[in-house]
Design goal:
This protein is mostly helical and 300 residues long. It is globular, with a radius of gyration of 20 Å.
């Protein structure tokens, strides 16, 4: 996404030599941020598989060294940025990466604390969206775009405001999409093991279910959610199906897409980034994963 954004923002004839190398270094660093986050996230969540392979901390020759490895990745990022960029470009990129780390760490904290406390009155859509934006939404949408804007010398307050206005909801929807993907937890399709129900996570599915369930269903949710017992997990899955959560997802996905298109169309033609730029980015995010395809695979 970083490379795509930069190439759309730049004229093709200038993308060569040192600038092209900087583009790749920046994209590498953005991706290493994700690796850093995922190593820590898998440790905190007790995840067993990532990309169809055992998680890094579960490898026999890694174990507790995974935390040090994550710290090394973060150090590598700053070293690569320092060697590749100078002046105001380096300062802006450095500050942006620090903002990304802080934002993601805040999201990880509230995600863990909310799950640990098991107070389902806190499972509100407002709290969920706050967690989703910080934990993953910022990184998945705004961060690569802002990185590309800095490298293309188009990073200013107007551009930052437009990015926040257009892409914040898209980033949150990326996390919602992840939540639904976790629900299907098919290693062959998603590359990871789903454990949000067992871990008692504040997910979009859980919040939506609590918004729509009756008193009897809520008691069942409170009794079974956050349990690793297969019977309890299956009861939560059945509750989601009874509440037609999947249909609600597809309806809200379409509504979010259409609302974002309207925001894009309301931008002036000379906006930075341009309406055409945002439409290209939007079309790359919908859908990031075909949850409908996942659903059909599981039910068939």
């Amino acid at each position: 996404m970083t490379i795509l954004c930069h190439e759309v923002l730049r004229k093709p004839e200038v993308l060569k030599g040192e600038l092209q190398i900087q583009q790749y270094v920046l994209a590498f660093c953005v991706q290493i941020v994700m690796a850093y986050i995922l190593i820590i996230d898998d440790i905190e969540d007790g995840t067993k598989k990532r990309n169809r392979k055992p998680c890094w901390h579960l490898l026999s020759d890694v174990g507790s060294l995974a935390m040090n490895d994550a710290s090394m990745l973060r150090s590598f990022i700053h070293e690569m940025l320092k060697q590749s960029f100078q002046g105001s470009t380096y300062v802006n990129i450095h500050n942006l990466f620090n903002e990304a780390f802080l934002t993601c760490n805040v999201g990880q904290y509230f995600d863990a604390v909310t799950a640990r406390n098991r107070n389902y009155d806190d499972f509100t859509m407002e709290r969920y969206k706050m967690i989703a934006h910080h934990k993953y939404g910022y990184f998945s949408s705004k961060f690569p775009v802002l990185s590309a804007l800095i490298l293309s010398n188009k990073f200013n307050k107007d551009a930052q405001r437009n990015v926040a206005n257009i892409l914040t909801d898209i980033g949150i929807w990326s996390q919602i999409n992840n939540d639904l993907t976790d629900f299907f937890d098919d290693d062959k399709r998603t590359g990871k093991t789903g454990s949000d129900i067992q871990a008692g996570k504040c997910t979009w599915l859980a919040v939506t279910a609590l918004q729509r369930c009756n008193q009897k269903q809520r008691k069942e949710f409170e009794a079974c959610y956050g349990s690793w017992e297969p019977e309890n997990v299956n009861r939560i899955r059945k509750l989601y199906e009874d509440l037609n959560i999947l249909n609600i997802y597809f309806h809200e996905e379409r509504a979010t897409y259409e609302a974002t298109v309207k925001k894009i169309q309301s931008l002036p033609s000379n906006a930075l980034p341009s309406p055409d730029f945002f439409q290209i980015i939007l079309d790359k995010y919908y859908p990031t994963v075909s949850c409908g395809e996942l659903y059909n695979t599981k039910t068939n």
